[in-house]
Amino acid sequence: MTQYLIEDFHFDIPKALDVIYTSRVYDLLMDSSNELYVYSAAYVYELLKKEYLKGSIV
User: Which residues constitute the domain of residue 26?
Assistant: First the structure.
């Protein structure tokens, strides 16, 4: 996901990592009870991108 953020938004590495680690998507990814980890990286990135652009994944 870091590379996607760098390519799509021209972030540097620290900014991309900050976006990831402070996101709701990351929290959901780390919670094994919802099994978000079984989805593709591209799918999870789309959720992250939506959260970043709109402030929500819903």
Answer: 2-54
Phi-psi region of 12 (alpha: psi -120 to 50; beta: other; left: phi over 0): beta
Is 17 in a helix, a strand, or coil?
helix
- 12-58, pLDDT tens digit by residue? 999 999 999 999 999 999 999 999 999 999 999 999 999 999 998 77
| Residue 15 Rama label (left phi>0; alpha psi -120 to 50; beta) | alpha
Q: Strand ranges (DSSP E) for 1-57?
A: none
Domain total of the chain? 1
Half-sphere exposure of 23 (CA within 13 A, CB side): 29
